[in-house]
Specification:
Layout (H helix, E strand, L loop, with lengths): L8 E7 L6 E9 L2 E9 L3
Antiparallel strand pairs: 1-2, 2-3
C-alpha cells in the first residue's frame, strides 16, 4: 500500500490483497510523517 505523504489527511477504500473484501484506510500525516493509521473492513 502506498500513501501520499503530501496529503495531510486521506481516506480511501482499497480491496484486501488476501480476501478481496473492501477496507477503508485512513491516514494522517504531519510534516510528511505518518502520525495515525486506521484500517476498517466494510460491509461485513
Amino acid at each position: 500500500m502506498l500513501l501520499d505523504t503530501s496529503i495531510r489527511q486521506q481516506s480511501y477504500v482499497e480491496d484486501c490483497e488476501v480476501c478481496c473484501n473492501p477496507i477503508e484506510v485512513t491516514a494522517y500525516f504531519l510534516a510528511n510523517e505518518l502520525t495515525q493509521f486506521e484500517a476498517s473492513e466494510l460491509g461485513q
